[in-house]
C-alpha cells in the first residue's frame, strides 16, 4: 500500500495526467508532479511586486481581504486544551485551500465528492454506499478508498450537518483505519465565494469580469486515544489537500466532457449524396 510520503496517481489518467504526488510536510503546499493537480498555494505577489488579495463575502454581506494563495490559517492545534469544567476539549486543526472553480460547481460536487472522484480517480477513492438515511444529517455512509489514498482503506461516517445555504458539511468518523489512533475524528468542510483581484477594477471594467473562485475551509476536531504515539496530524492535512485537488480536477474533467459532448451534438451533418427513390 502506498503511503502519504509518495502517492501514486496512475489511476487518475482520466484527469489528463499520471505521476506521483509528494507532499511537502511542514509547508503550505503539496508538490505537483503531474497535470492532475494544481499547486495548493500560489505566489502572493505578481512579477511587478503587486500584492494579490482575495475578497471573501460572508453571510452578513461583509467583505474580508486575505493574501492570495494563503492555504493555512494558523498552525494545527498541538497543545492540550481544557474546558471550564476541567475536562479536556478536542484539539482543532484548520486549513484553507484556494480553489479555481466556482462555488456553484464545487458545492454540488462536494456533497457527492466520493463518487465524483471515484469516476475519475478510482485508485484514490472506490466509491461510497449509503447505509442509512438519504444523505442528510443523521445519515450513515460507508466510504471505500483505493490504494493511492495510503492512509486508509475504508471509513464509516455519520453526517452531522449538511447546510446548502451556508455550504457546510460536517461528519463524524464511526469506524475505519483511523479509529485505531483517534478517539474523535470530526471534519467540517465549508466553501466561500471569493473574488481575486490583482489590481483595482478599471472604470470601464465590470466587477463581473473578475475571475470568481472559492475557498475551501477544512476544520478537523480530533482527540487521540490514550497510550499511543500521536500520529502526525500534518499527514491528515496533506491528505485533505490532495482530496480537494482531486475533487477540483474531477469537476473540471466533467465540465470539459460536457462541453465536448455539447459541441459534438451541434456539429453540422455532413452532406450525403441523395439516393434516388425506387420506382
UniProtKB/TrEMBL annotation:
Residue ranges of domain Bet v I/Major latex protein in the record: 92-254
GO biological process, one term: abscisic acid-activated signaling pathway
Matches recorded under SMART domains: Bet_v_1 (SM01037)
Disordered as annotated region, ranges: 29-52, 258-279
InterPro entries noted in UniProt: Bet_v_I/MLP, Plant_def-hormone_signal, START-like_dom_sf
GO CC aspect terms: cytoplasm; nucleus
GO MF terms, alphabetically ordered: abscisic acid binding; protein phosphatase inhibitor activity; signaling receptor activity
Sequence ranges of Polar residues compositional bias: 268-279
One matching Pfam family: Bet_v_1
UniProt feature, compositional bias: Low complexity: 39-48
Family: Belongs to the BetVI family.
Name of the featured protein: Bet v I/Major latex protein domain-containing protein
Organism name: Ceratopteris richardii
